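Quarterly update from the structural biology core.
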Amino acid sequence: MSWNYHKYLHVYAQHYQHQESFIVGNRDALFELRNLIDKALVEGTSIGDFFSSDVEGYQLHIGIVEDEEKFNALEMPYTEQFGEINQHNYFANLTNDPKAPYSPIILFPNDDEKEE
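Predicted structure, tokenized:
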């Protein structure tokens, strides 16, 4: 493991309501996370590259949501399966939109859309 050369960050989501969540990482990763949050506060979104402890890289998307209705239409962040079929969309914020809940990826512009 190259501790001094990679931004190591683990983001642990809640398994269910009221359970704690965690963000842990080395100093470089936490500084980068802070910078990405600052950028998202100014520009609306930001994306950073990190590594988990198995040295597998991943992107972390950070976005600000200014609209309460849009926020309420996002799928819940819990990892535990609800119901007999894992639909990955346990949804507590009922809306009239039959397409909800939405993945948080809707907050981040698609590269194809940027080119148009």
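The first helix runs from residue 27 to 43.
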